[in-house]
Fold this protein.
Amino acid sequence: MLLVQQCARRAHRWPLRSGLTSISNTCFYSSSYYLTTPIFYPNSVPHIGHLYTLVITDILARHARISLPDRTVCFLTGTDEHGLKIQRAAEARNLEPLEFCNRISDRFRVLANNASASYTRFIRTSEKDHHHAVQHVWRALDSKGLIYKGSHKGWYSVADECFYTENQVERLSGKGNTLSSSSEEIVVSKETGSVVEWTEEDNYKFRLSRFRDFLFARYQSDPHTIYPPQQHAAVLDMLSMPLEDLSVSRPRSRLHWGISVPNDSAHTIYVWFDALINYLTGVGYPWDTEKQNVQACWPPDLQVVGKDIVRDASGSGHTTSQEALGSLHWTVNRRKMSKSIGNVVDPFYVIEELGTDVVRYYLARIGGRFKDDVDWSSEQLENHGAELRSLLGNFYLRITSAAIRKRLPEGFHSNLRESLEQSLSTEDVKEVEVANGLQTLASVVDNHLKELRISEALEAIMHQLKAINALLNATEPWAKNSREAVVMKMYALSLETLRICGILLQPFIPIKAGTLLDAMSVPQSERALQHAQYLCGTMGVTTPGVKLFSNTRVS
Ligand code: MSP
C-alpha cells in the first residue's frame, strides 16, 4: 500500500542486478535482505502451486544467506485468513472461522517445514500484531485524506476476493456449464472463470486513482521492478489506463470475519488491504522509533507472487520492493491447478514418496524459468529424482568406492589439493572443460540467481556434474590397469567438483547438499559462496559409502 512510499529506504542494498562477475569482488554490503511469499488462503489444504511458491522463495533466501553470511535474511510466509471466502468455507463446515483457520493454517506451516523452507516468520493475519498494524495504516491514510466513504456496485467474486466490471464478466447458460447444477444462468469472471455475484454496498474507498501516474512512472522507469518481462509489461499496460478508487471495506453485515474499520465497527476492512500489510507486520511495523534497527528489514528486496496476483498487487502499490517475481502456474492437463477446480496434487504425498529435495529439485528445474505455465508430471518428477541420484548420489559412491580408494597411495588425502594443482593436463579437452567449469561455476550460478534465473542456475551445476560423470566413465580409474596418477587426479578432481557443487546446491537441495558436505568433512564455516571457488576450500577426510539417496547403487 502507498504508505510504504513514505518509509525510509536503506542506504545500502545488495545490488541484485549488479552484473558482478567475480564473487570475491563482492564489496557491496547491506545488513539485511528481505523476501516474502504471497500469504496463502487457508480455505482449503495446500497444493503443489503453494509448495512451489515456497520453494522458489526459499531458494533465493538460502542463496542470499550463503552469498553474504553476515547479513540478516528475513523471509516471511504465512496465511491470509480473513474475508468472505474463509468466512463461507468455515460456515460450510459449521466451524468458527478462527477454529477453521487454525486447522488449515497449520497445514501450511507443516508444509513449509516439510519443504525445508527457511522462513523467519510464519505470519497469520488473524494475529493481534497484524490487526494493530492494519488499523495503524488505515488511520495514517485516513489522516492524509486518502480514505473516504462512498458506495460501490459491481460483480464480486468470493473465490478471487475482488470486484469485476461488467466488461470483465460473461453469462453462461445453465445447461452446459459445469459450475452450477441448476439450469439458471450464471455469471463468471472472464479471466478466472470464477462465479461472481452482483453487489451494491456502502463502503470506504481508497483514492487509488491519484497514484496512477506515480505508479506508472515508477514501473516504467525501471524494467527490473517486475520479473519476468511479460509480467512487467502487463502491469504497465494496466497502469496505462485510469485507475479507479479501490473499495477497501465491506459492511459488517456481509463480512464479519475480518478487521474492523477504526471508529466504525459497522465496516470490516477488505481482505486485500489487510493482507498486503502483512509484509509490514512481518518485520515489526508500526515502527517503534525508540528501538534501534527495528526497520532493519524494510522494505522488501524481493517479493514472490503468483502471476495471477502480480497485477492486483502492483496496482495497489504493493510492490515496494526492489523486485517482484511473478511466478508461473502449475497446471494439470493444461488447466491451472486449483482448489476450486479440484485438480490438485497433494504436496505432502509427493514429499513423502520421493523426499523433500527431489521435489524441490523438480519444482525449481521445471518451474524456475517463469516463462510458460508447466504441466505437472509424476513421470517427469521421478526422472528428475533419478537424474539427481545418478549424477550426485551414485557418483559420490563410485568415487569413494573401495575399488578406487585402494589404488590411492598412503597419505594421499593430506595433499589432495596440491596433487590436483600439479597433475591437471592442459591437453585433455574433457579435463580442461571440467577444471575451467569449476573456476567459473560459482559466479555463473550467482549471476543467474541475481537475475532470478533459477532453472538456469541449477542447469549450470548439473552440467558440471554431467561433465565429471562423463570424465569418470571415460578414465575408468577403478580399472585394474589404470595408472596411479590417473586415479589420484580423478579422485581429487571429483571431490573438488562435489565440494563446489555441494556448496552451490545448498539453496536448491539443502538436505542432500548438507549430507554431502558433511560426508566430505567440509567445515560449516566453509560453505558460503566465496568457498565455492576452485581450490579455495578445505578438502577433508571423506567418508566412503554415504548414501545420499536411499536407493543409490554403485555401478
Ligand atoms: N491470499 C492471496 C495472496 C495475498 S498476498 C498479500 C492468494 N492466496 S492463494 O492461496 O490463492 O494463492 C497463493 C499463491 O499461490 C499465489 O501467488 C498463487 O499464484 C499461487 N498459486 C496458486 N495456485 C497456483 C498454481 N496452480 N501454480 C503456481 N502457483 C499457484 O492469492
Notes: Confidence is low (pLDDT under 50) at residues 1-29. Residues 38-41, 49-50, 52-53, 80, 275-276, 305-306, 308-309, 329-330, 336-338 surround 5'-O-[(L-methionyl)-sulphamoyl]adenosine (CB under 6 Å).
